[in-house]
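worker-03 picked up job from queue 'complexes'. Input manifest follows; two sequence lines, order preserved.
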Amino acid sequence: MSQERNLARALTAHRLFWPVAVLVALLVLNVVFTDGFLTVQMRQGHLYGSLIDILRFGAPLILVALGMTLVIATGGIDLSVGSVVAIAGALACLRISDLTDQGSVTGVLAAVGVALAVALVLGAWNGVLVSVIGIQPIIATLILMVAGRGLAQLITDGQIITINSAPYKLIGGGYWLTLPFGILVVTALVALTGFLTRRLALGMFIESVGGNAEASRLSGIRSSGVLIVVYTFCGLCAGIAGLMISSNVSSADGNYAGLWIELDAILAVVIGGTSLLGGRFSIAGTVLGALIIQTLTTTIYSIGVTPETTLLFKALVVTLVCLLQSPSFRRKAFRRRARPAPPPPAPADGPSDASVSDVTAGEGREETVRNR
Amino acid sequence: MSKRAPLLILAGALALTMTACGQTSSEPSTGAVTGGAAADKKIVMGFSQVGAESGWRTANTKSVQEAAEKAGIQLKFSDAQQKQQNQIKALRSFVQQRVDVIAFSPVVESGWDTVLKEAKNANIPVILTDRAVDSADTSLYKTFLGSDFVEEGKKAGQWLVEEYKDSKDPVTIVELQGTTGSAPANDRKAGFAEVIGADSKFKIAASQTGDFTRAKGKEVMDAFLKSTPKIDVLFAHNDDMGLGAIEAIEGAGKVPGKDIKIITIDAVKDGMQALADGKINYIVECSPLLGPQLMDLAGKVVKGEQVPARVVTEETTFTQEQAKEALPSRQY
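worker-03 finished. Artifact:
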């Protein structure tokens, strides 16, 4: 009996338990309201269904949130991702619209290359502002958030650039091996990031910089280098997301592409259990968070929430998720059943990828709090 | 104290450059200003535009500029870049320069009373274009020239009623609304609902906002295609959402324009192209080309003639055949 209870407690204490529970609850809600929500069929040589839609439209958000996770893990924040999304899409579409043959693969690759290079530069710019010049991240990236939107409008001349290019269409709207190409790109990038941060020392560097930048520097980590890498990576993720978003509709909209995506991305990171104070982070949690947000959006469309109440509905669900995520709220809400013993802070039985680094980061964070 | 000195200097310099900019931008034709309006009786119009956020708006600006030239009206053009404060500044500078008539498209609905009173006190008539203000005192402006969004919704509904007049089967409609709470979205929805509401065979199965953008239009339509098994008609509040939805429909293996009939509003170039290609069935025009009407009204207002308080832009509708004809000469 106690074994079962222990198992249940271990399960609910896992930090990804509540996000998963909410995602499942949302899916169940959809199944109740929409017939055949879970069916995935083959249509025109690719998979087709609501679940595929969630992955397809969620792909850019997962990417942006992935970059955001690492930035937040360093104790920073990147508000400029929405603008980078718009700039990347605008640049790529502008270059492609100038091509004599819009279907030429080399031309499209060149356009994509230019857009991603600019995204990298913009990300590095943020990193330099934060690390070398020492501007607070929220201000440093606010500059590019505002100026970048203007830049995107300048590139598109305030108009919507429409293109007709099959190779470009593949990035965000096409399919490969019956799966949406975008989600394959995202899977690869998430796997790569997971490898770089969990198998190599980079993740620990990031967490220690987020925990206490000065202490990390004193212990031999080049904090500024780590920061620049992280912001550049975030810029790259936003750039790729921008290509996906513009490719999905074969047009670049400098005014609205990626508008407010930074807020959704931050939300996804927070839902995934990464603390805004920096320190430890969870990539799996972020992916879950982004999927929750996209599923929520799809749910709103499918079950017919009226546009006037959409924001309220979203707010309620997000509040619920955040409350469930908070250990102190859970302790208060479920006190009756739980024994007074405090839950173990570090998930020793957690995912294999987050054991040692989490502990060090946790300590580092406490130190920062005390310093303040 | 000494620490602040450079800051103050900087602020002063900034203020100077800003006034300099303001002067240059509001005086595109300096030569004529010294001559004065009285000398050759040329009407001087101050026009403050919202910005250049879309192809529609750019066409609107061009129409006003060209019509002014044609009508022999001297135009002082100012771009507010989506900011009300810029627009108020521009209106004040028009009042100071004693233009004969002021026309502007308000960035937002409210907060205009003070500056409009200044214009009224200076005896300068004001014409609103394209967008309205919510001032309780309607004597602050002479007339409002712009599209009737309710009428546009009605026209869309009327085509649908005509198209299905011989059919008795129920018609399932999905609607892509504009930005929630915006005047075009509210009015187009109301006009459309009023017309199709007369016949119970028309049913709006789902209605959701697509924020006037292609990306959202596609995303919402993709969800509609799954949640509503049989969709006969799509009504999108603008072309862009319709264009996004077309991609979703094609992705679902259906033929836009045939399996699902599509009605949109605006008639921008990409939309007209899709209409000519048979992917859209009907477009209700929301014309930005109100320049000639504006100049006509301005002439009357300056002479002191009575004008109606509300003037609707001359607009038309397009079927697929009409689109093919109109496309080559389309300005926007």
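worker-03 released lock.
Residues 25 and 85 of chain B are 15 Å apart (CA to CA).
The domain at 149-286 of chain B is CATH 3.40.50.2300 (Rossmann fold).
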